[in-house]
């Protein structure tokens, strides 16, 4: 199968709709569409956010705080980072399925293949055996690692489908349950909704990269994302549910990480209990930027046990988890790629509280990737303070900017109160989940607990 990097690639999708209600009952999809839909689970959040900003329909609520967090990292001063290449690696995380996704008929990820740069000094190369992903990094000898090795993995195909077998077809419900295509499944769906066959009609729509991203954004917010995609003029129904923070299944090393906490100082307006801003140190900012490297499948499965605030994403993840290997998913290895995606390079910050599946090694030929971290962190530890807005914009703390913000909000200094909050994995998960659908992530995740403590202890 040839690579499909063209933005013009389209997949035809048949949908069964109710003629009068303007509602999608289900879609009948071939392996190409289901492959693409399943592949979303392997994408890091940084990639989903970047693609959503580029190709979506401008929905302002989906991924709201993650989008501003992403932009904050784009604008973040490199002087606070451990190395020049740190920002590139934080903005461009990859999972081990990257090359496999390039075989998809419709690959939504337009990320360019990696480049491999080494030191032009052959003597140095012989001893240090390191490579970089960018050409502006200095080698230990002082030279720029600028030798382009022009390495590119081929994308020759196999027998058809990538994750699911070729020539198989599936039923995709309006809330993204994916099931094998059988007559009893479709008939039961129509019966459950109380519709008659005469009320329904078949339509065909063309699905490209933009449509897939619109579908993903809608799935994070609404109960019926396929209806939203097909009928934009229909008022969407909110699909958020209360996420359940279950107990994570952690290994020994992960349990040690899980015990870590960091402090966040929240400033509230005393008279209204409204969030104003937060003050954080490097460890929390490093952790926060780490949200962007988390693959969607890891977020839904390992971190949230299949119970996020998005019912549709939960349904999609459960569909993959419940599919038989060999019959509907080609191999256990491919199934694991979808529900337990693995980051391709092993350099994760020590401030990353969440347990992520990371490749044990990542190499190019005889070379190993240069570690951009200092003391296993992406941000320098200089005691710098940072200011965070409610939608996770991160900037270096400035007393002048704080006073200017309070003046703009017309909040007198006497009406400001501060609360220290300990952030562990549970609080981190709440912030992460809120960032998927809200532009008030810190308020949604932390304010309730603060106000409850104020009421309980009278502080």
TrEMBL record:
For this protein's source organism, the top of the classification is: Eukaryota, Viridiplantae, Streptophyta, Embryophyta, Tracheophyta
Quote the protein name from its UniProt record.
DUF674 family protein
């Amino acid at each position: 199968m040839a690579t499909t990097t063209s933005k013009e690639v389209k997949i035809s999708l048949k949908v069964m709709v109710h003629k009068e209600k303007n509602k999608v009952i289900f879609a009948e999809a071939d392996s190409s569409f289901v492959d693409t839909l399943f592949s979303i689970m392997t994408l890091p959040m940084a990639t989903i956010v970047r693609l959503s900003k580029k190709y979506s329909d401008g929905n302002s609520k989906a991924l709201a705080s993650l989008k501003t967090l992403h932009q904050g990292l784009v604008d973040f001063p490199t002087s606070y980072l451990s190395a020049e290449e740190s920002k590139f690696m934080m903005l461009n995380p990859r999972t081990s399925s990257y090359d496999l996704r390039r075989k998809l008929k419709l690959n939504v990820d337009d990320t360019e293949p990696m480049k491999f740069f080494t030191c032009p000094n052959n003597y140095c190369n012989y001893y240090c055996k390191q490579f970089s992903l960018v050409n502006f990094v200095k080698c230990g000898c002082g030279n720029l690692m600028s030798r382009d090795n022009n390495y590119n993995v081929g994308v020759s195909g196999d027998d058809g489908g990538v994750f699911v077998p070729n020539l198989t077809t599936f039923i995709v419900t309006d809330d993204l349950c994916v099931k094998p295509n059988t007559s009893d499944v479709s008939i039961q769906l129509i019966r459950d909704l109380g519709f008659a066959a005469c009320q329904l009609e078949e339509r065909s729509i063309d699905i490209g990269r933009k449509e897939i991203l619109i579908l993903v954004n809608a799935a994070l917010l609404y109960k019926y994302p396929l209806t939203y995609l097909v009928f934009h003029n229909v008022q969407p129904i909110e699909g958020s549910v209360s996420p359940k923070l279950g107990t994570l299944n952690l290994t020994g090393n992960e349990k040690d990480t899980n015990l870590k906490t960091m402090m966040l100082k929240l400033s509230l307006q005393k008279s209204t209990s409204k969030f104003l801003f937060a003050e954080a140190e490097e460890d929390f900012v490093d952790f926060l930027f780490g949200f962007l490297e988390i693959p969607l499948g890891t977020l839904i499965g390992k971190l949230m046990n299949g119970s996020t605030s998005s019912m549709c994403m939960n349904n999609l993840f459960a569909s993959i988890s419940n599919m038989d290997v060999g019959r509907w998913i080609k191999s256990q290895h491919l199934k694991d790629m979808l529900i337990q995606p693995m980051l391709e390079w092993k350099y994760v910050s020590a401030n990353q509280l969440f347990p992520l599946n990371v490749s044990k090694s990542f190499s190019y030929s005889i070379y190993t990737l240069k570690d951009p971290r200092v003391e296993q962190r992406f941000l320098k530890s200089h005691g710098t303070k940072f200011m965070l807005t409610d939608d996770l914009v991160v900037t270096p703390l400035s007393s002048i900017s704080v006073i200017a913000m309070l003046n703009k909000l017309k909040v007198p200094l006497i009406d400001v109160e501060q609360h220290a909050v300990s952030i562990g994995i549970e609080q981190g998960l709440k912030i992460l989940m809120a960032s998927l659908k809200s532009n008030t992530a810190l308020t949604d995740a932390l304010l309730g607990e603060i106000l409850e403590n104020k009421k309980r202890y009278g502080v």
